Amino acid sequence: MTSINTAYDESRYIYKCKPVYEFFKSVFDISFAIALLLIFVPFLMLITILIKLSDRGPAFYAQERVGRNGKVFNLLKFRTMRVDSEIEPVWAVQDDPRCTKIGRLLRRASIDELPQLINIIKLEMSFVGPRPERPFFMKDHPGLTGLRLSVKPGLTGLAQVNGRYNLSINEKLHYDLEYVHNRRFYLDFIIIVKTVYKVFICEGAW
After folding, report:
1. Does 3 fall in a domain?
2. Beta-strand (E) ranges in the chain?
């Protein structure tokens, strides 16, 4: 794999069409997402009730994100912030004062991301790929609208298992482009395994 540095240079990476890989990856995504939803239904219902009891607001939050080939979709999350707390889009920050008590716990354990299993079933996302960004932020960096949009965004990705929020934008871009350039089943498997470990130890989650 190409070495990671802080200088952004997309020309070092290429996108190769892999129809067989893409097909079987989609089959895995849908099958695994449905299985997890069925397994976690009681847990998801409990989280929904806890959020509703915490401040009576909606349990779920839909946020516009940019997916493959620039298509905008609504990414689903459990709501972790107070209702109407976001006046304008801002980057995620550690110990965000806008978070509710239950929301802070959900973020710490990455449980707030579980509703994105629905996005995966709808083929808007994959289990593994570059994390989708918000349109508001993409205009500030050309790399966010470049080669990384050639593949479906992921619930987790190479950047998420190598630093997540501790990385700069350029460092995240390099990991995203590394994934686009080198994506294959073995790499997906390694990223999923590492993600489970990172979630278990709550590393890099805000």
Report:
1. no
2. 60-66, 72-78, 126-128, 154-156
